[in-house]
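Lab meeting notes turned into a lecture example. A postdoc, R.K., suggested we walk through two folding results consecutively so the class can see how the record format repeats. The first protein's sequence and structure tokens come next.
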Amino acid sequence: MHMEERPVQKGHKLVVNNRKTSLVTGVIDVLSFDLNEILLETEQGMMMVKGTDLHVNRLSLEKGEVDLSGNIDSIAYSDVHAAGKQGENLFSKLFR
């Protein structure tokens, strides 16, 4: 029996429009989010978005896509992939 499967998107793209909306592809997981910070695990490592009034408007882990909105102040990457809480600990140390 042969099942047709859509390949999971490999690779990562980040599009930011006027620092208000963002499309992120290559997302593996959303680790945490609140109004001031969103932490994503992507194909290219951990990605932290900081700002104000941040929202995850659309999330499709099947497609590996996330739409974000709010006032985006900064975006930072780390090559560390999440292993339990290690990724969050690393970022909390980096951005205190």
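The second example is placed directly after the first for contrast:
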Amino acid sequence: MPDSLMYQQDDFVVLETNQPEQFMTASELLEKLKKILQNFNFQDLPKDLQKFNSVEAQAQYLLDTSCELDIGVGQYLQWYAVRLEK
């Protein structure tokens, strides 16, 4: 049986255009995603995010199910769960 520790997502490495890699907690990444999503027009959001009525729900869905968000031509935002301690 797999160890439940394998599925914890407490920390993330975040890769963003023209920025050094950053380590963020889940709550920090959630806040970052919310700020980015607030600047999107509803029609420009990916279809799977349009079913949610709040930015909070959209950001949580991304955090739970994705590892990247298309934020524009030539730009990227990616995040990957990491374990920082043994």
